[in-house]
Amino acid sequence: MNATLHLLTTLLLCTALVRPLAAARWVWRSPRTGILLWQMLLLTWVLCAVGAVFAIGLSPYDPDIPTAVERLLAGTRPAGLSPWHLAVVGAGLVLASVLLASLAWSWVRVLHTRRRHRQVLSLVAREESALPGVLILDHPLTVAYCLPGLRAQVVLSSGTLSALSPDEVAAVLAHEQTHARERHDLVLLPFAALRRLLPRSSLVAGAAEAVALLVEMRADEGACRARCAASLAAALRRFNLTAVAPPPGAIGMADGAVAARLSRLGSALRPLPLAVRWLVLVTGAVLVSTPLSFLVV
């Protein structure tokens, strides 16, 4: 019961934190810290949800969940164990399997989509000596996106090169290269998988959108280190007016709430103090450690 109470309490706490964190503006000051906090919150929520179900089903055993699992597998049946408890344990197995399968399916689906898109790019895109490592699509509208992976590829349209100044193009490239270098696709994947699993959940949708915005802000930071914020903001305004959506499996220049990103670029927010960032990360680590302390021997 002790494990059940702790896991359920932490689960409710994580659930209650979603809306305030999604609406928070202080995380905009240090997007990387915000991304890590969201990842730890999601991991804690999943571990607590699965762990609480197992804790309820294994409550006749004592003292902890790993030992209870060992005794159950060994065939030990305490007096209080009923078919209902075994059904709850089965539900825990189903829940864990569904979550893992959803993540795996999302990953396989994304890999397949990217593979097909790379094949298409090999037929229709071209390279330019002035932009090494960048593929150019002959398209009149502004297009810029990163196709992530071990061999990440940045794609620009000829319309982008015509519409933007050289400094703006460089800022766009730095933005997309930050996505590729920091593997932001892996950050977004579990949130997208959970959103696909729970499409009607406003909490999950809010969390996924908040993380997507922080990912874009983090890429904006990378671009601002390479080029001035004014060049990136000018490019972003033009993309907001004329850009088309990136293909599935890619991360586009104009993804995320553009107005919020422009506001952040214009206000020149200072990063959170180092002590505050460490406090946030330690708090997230404490959250994750709660379910782990009950689920790991």
TrEMBL record:
Cofactor: Zn(2+)
Keyword GTP-binding in record: no
GO BP annotations, alphabetical order: proteolysis
Domain Peptidase M48: 113-197
Cofactor: binding details: Binds 1 zinc ion per subunit.
Gene3D superfamilies: Metalloproteases ('zincins'), catalytic domain
Gene Ontology molecular function: metal ion binding; metalloendopeptidase activity
Swiss-Prot/TrEMBL keywords: Hydrolase, Membrane, Metal-binding, Metalloprotease, Protease, Transmembrane, Transmembrane helix, Zinc
InterPro entries: Beta-lactam_resp_regulator, Peptidase_M48
One Pfam family matching this protein: Peptidase_M48
Positions of transmembrane segments: 6-28, 40-61, 81-108, 274-296
PANTHER family: POSSIBLE SENSOR-TRANSDUCER PROTEIN BLAR (PTHR34978), SLR0241 PROTEIN (PTHR34978:SF3)
Record-stated family: Belongs to the peptidase M48 family.
The protein's name in its UniProt record: Peptidase M48 domain-containing protein
